[in-house]
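Researcher: Let's walk through a ligand-bound prediction step by step. First, I give you the protein sequence. Second, the SMILES string for NAP. Third, you return the three-dimensional complex as structure tokens. Ready?
Model: Ready.
Researcher: Here are steps one and two:
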Amino acid sequence: MNILVTGSRGQLGSELQELQVNAASHCFYFTDLPEFDITSAGAAESFCREHGIGAIVNCAAYTAVDRAETDVAKAFTVNRDGAAVLAGAARACGALLVHVSTDYIFDGLACRPYREDDPASPCGVYGQSKWEGEEAIRRIGASHMIIRTSWLYSDYGQNFVKTMLRLGRERESIGVVFDQVGTPTWARDLASAIVAILERFDPTRQYAETYHYSNEGVCSWYDFSKAVMSAAGLTCRVRPIETADYPTPARRPHFSVLNKRKIREAWGLDIPHWHESLLRMLDSVTRDT
Ligand SMILES: NC(=O)c1ccc[n+]([C@@H]2O[C@H](COP(=O)([O-])OP(=O)(O)OC[C@H]3O[C@@H](n4cnc5c(N)ncnc54)[C@H](OP(=O)(O)O)[C@@H]3O)[C@@H](O)[C@H]2O)c1
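Model: Step three, the predicted complex:
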């Protein structure tokens, strides 16, 4: 099958590129800005027709959560309108759209892990734009799977782990919030889950599914930071601070743990614990450098 991957130079897209060698039964087309803009309607549909695309994996997004608070139009253009464009192209070509969304569509007030059908109530512009992207896909009615994830990190792009590694080398101590709890996700694990689904889905079936995927387990950003420092052998001291001590333009959910039961059972996935994956990621970075 021919598969279009958008936003392929971001964290998740880059991990999919790493894995493609193991998915030899498929032909991947990896695209990103500037040559492939997901907000360009005609271009997406003609690309899919021309290349006989059977599945689209949308890794493209406006992910600057704080900047989105002031760059509102851009966030909605990419995260809502871009998602709608790809859903339109998928429907026109009979392709499956695998779209990645976020834990930030929830307000973080729950006291148990979020299920797929829990009501959305985003805290900020980024979350709202991603939620409206999901809704647009459902409305357009292409065969689709929306996969919400959380706290993505990888060796590629900018993310919390890389920031902690840098600060850990530069500083003697840092303060990290302990009152925001969720689950980190190594982008390579999510990429593997997507490849597993692409290997097994039935192209003759119409899908309309929403799933949650993160690594297993739960931690605060403080715990996560401590784990990075310890695994990397850095002596930087990590101090627990409250969200109020680290104000950001966008409000974040205090609790955004996702319940993964549905995706685990539907596709027989064995999801690694976040700490195990962090060690594997750091190990792979060390081996590559
Ligand atoms: N990062 C997280 O912690 C996190 C958490 C939960 C969910 N997610 C979701 O997971 C998915 C993947 O995230 P990620 O961290 O891999 O994102 P990322 O690293 O920011 O990559 C996104 C990619 O999309 C590209 N892009 C932006 N606008 C585009 C457009 N109009 N057309 C085509 N490409 C465009 C970006 O290019 P430029 O760099 O040039 O803009 C970038 O290469 C996203 O849907 C995100 O919302 C992320």
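Researcher: And what stands out?
Model: The chain has nine helices and twelve strands. The longest strand covers residues 96-102.
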